């Protein structure tokens, strides 16, 4: 079908026809070289902008900026002439690619675009008579460019100019005529180039396609069928996806007609073992499922069958299967009612996810590897929550297993707890009865993941499920015990808001099960000991765990923590990353026990005061060691403050005063740093470490009362400086002023 180009004006359509033949020369005279830079000098400047040497690159950026401010039209002419060159050397290709990118940036600055405003770059003025010539030049350069990577950069620049043309109420009929010539492209390469241009225009200049979106979709659809090469079909899929997701208008029905062609492209790529192309098609479908789910709802049955086939096909790469699973989750989130009405899909997908949770390798060094994500939060409860919330990603390790865990969580939230529990509960209960350790672990993890979104349906079963999970803390395989401890701690968070709390109802089950993981029996599994200590941080929350519940177990727990901190729980020294959580766990137990912690006070105070005097490693120490030592010091500060706050001034007054004396030099350094606004090396660590110290000092001040007055002058500047730190992320409105954007830059 032909495009609506009735507003073509007086310009001849022959200009557009040349976009698939030979470059036009009508812009050559306008963009003739001249000015301060010769051809070779400008090429050297373009290459210098990509130099690995900082001084050379900065000098090139400075030179270019000077020319842009003094004579921007001359720079545009140089860039235009570079685009017209057709050398095949690596340097020539790089120069043309860089010229296309820089021309887009220059146009953005001349239009006052958002990118230029965010960068804080001053606007520039280009002659009004240059725009018509730029239109012709860019189309000719795009059509005659032999290198696809450069051609895509030029297409992006065309889209930038087209967007401004529409904004200014102008027309660009040659561009639309070039698109209408797609069906008559002389070969696949030219057709792919045209489809790439459609994709770029839809992404960056959607308004210029809105009147012709349906016609373009039908043109693009002609390239989706099996007689076309795979690369051409993929370009058509991407172009159609960009139109349907970016261009406004009621053209969803046209895409529905193209969906069989899209699925044909996916099938063809998989049958030819071209998984890279298949992945691109899956990503395109996922984008539509996210942006325009309504388009796909009528095809829920066929799409679901196809994606389940891909997910189940073990011969495929994991990345391909995960992308198919991602599509299913995204589609379910956007079309939950359609999926629920298709009852067989839930019954097929959820058991499959539990099977994927079993896909983990039994690694020899798993037990001695630290968690891959360690937080440095300053609040005890936050530390525990952060540790446990990241555990599904840390523990899974296998990509497919990790994707299944995330998918199970997403589906339980979008499909509704009732539907998910109806299908999943019998499955994970059956998994918990199997002999295979992987199945047991998968059943426990699924129960943990479903706890928060499905708690209303699972809570009546806690009297049976929680003891069943706790019994797995005795399982011979450490990864099953690890999953069980994590699930118990997660349950205390998910079900801890009601009265009586889960600690009050099941404390005699939870505390012994978790404490046993800290014993000498697990000395060779420090990763499990670390998790058990982190779990205690969650379980011993003063808001949820009354002292009467903790009291019968406090002696055993604190003895085990003391042994770990003093390296008396095995033949080797306790890893420092285990001690991090043990120290915080001691502070949380003290906070929960309150004044009753006085009986254990003298056992832990000497060690904590010794840790308070730690100096950070210097002299080229490894960054990870600096981090762990600062974290250990910060944890010690936090725990000492919690303990002093728990037992009160009568017991801890002198030690609190001693601790302030120890922390004085650090407070002075913080004060100097805040007042001089110096950013020392390792500033991120310093900021996180400072928060521990300031929080601890605040607790010590609460204990000391009026005796703390002498420290206020030292503490006040760092405290106000920390409170006044600007966040790393700021959200500004789309119509933010120039001043706001410049300040952000």
Care to describe what's here?
- There is one protein chain.
- The protein has 745 residues and is mostly helical.
- Helices cover 69% and strands 0% of the residues.
- The longest helix has 28 residues, at 649-676.
- It is globular.
- The two termini are 47 Å apart.
What would a concise description of this structure say?
With 745 residues, the chain is mostly helical. The protein has helices spanning 14-17, 39-48, 54-70, 72-84, 90-111, 114-119, 130-144, 148-167, 173-180, 188-204, 213-221, 230-246, 252-271, 275-291, 300-312, 318-334, 336-341, 343-356, 380-389, 391-396, 399-414, 417-431, 437-451, 455-458, 462-471, 478-494, 502-515, 526-539, 547-565, 576-593, 598-612, 623-647, 649-676, 683-704, 712-723, 738-744.
Labels describing this entry:
single chain, 745 residues, mainly alpha, 36 helices, globular, disordered N terminus
Class of secondary structure makeup: mainly alpha
Mean pLDDT: 83
Strand residues, percent: under 5%
Overall geometry comes to globular
Task: Count all strands and give the number.
Answer: 0
> Treating each run of at least 4 consecutive H or I residues as one helix, how many helices?
36
In helices, the fraction of residues equals 55-70%
Cα-atom Rg, whole angstroms? 32 Å
- Return residue spans where pLDDT drops below 50 for at least 5 consecutive residues: 1-25, 33-38, 373-394, 678-684
What's the end-to-end separation, in Å? Answer: 47 Å
For the sheet with most strands, the description reads: none
